[in-house]
TrEMBL record:
Name listed for the protein in its UniProt record: Fe-S protein
Record keywords: Membrane, Transmembrane, Transmembrane helix
Organism: Microbacterium phyllosphaerae
Membrane found in the keyword field: yes
Top-level taxon of the source organism: Bacteria
Membrane-spanning ranges: 6-25, 37-57, 69-87, 99-118
Length: 119
């Protein structure tokens, strides 16, 4: 069961890598717009994160850090909201507001930092 949990963790990390990678391509490629790949990466990270939040496959004596899980969930929901609103604005106006675009990248990095630094 622990091996399955590690596989789900790997999928979770892949989701964040896809989201941040797709964002970085747009940020440093000059277009600065939201892509479908960003939404796919966020969805993968969200689904795998929800599976990881369930208390299964943990070694004996290990407790879940629900404050960390809740914080990561709130940040992920904000990223999802920004992607949804920004994609809608992009369809209507042809571009994403710069603040929204940069916030997605910053919050994705913050979420990864929370995952690795917060114990």
């Amino acid at each position: 069961m622990e091996t399955l949990r590690h596989v789900v963790l790997f999928v979770h990390l892949i989701g964040f890598a896809v989201l941040l990678g797709a964002w970085a391509v747009q940020a440093f490629g000059g277009k600065r717009q939201f892509t479908r790949l960003m939404s796919i990466g966020m969805t993968i990270a969200a689904l795998a994160g929800l599976a990881l939040a369930a208390p299964w496959g943990l070694p004996e004596g290990v407790e879940m850090n629900y404050a960390k899980i809740g914080t990561k969930l709130v940040v992920l929901l904000v990223i999802g909201a920004l992607l949804g609103i920004g994609t809608s604005k992009q369809r209507k106006a042809g571009s994403v507001p710069a603040v929204m675009f940069w916030l997605v990248g910053i919050l994705t990095a913050v979420n990864a930092a929370i995952a690795t630094i917060w114990r």
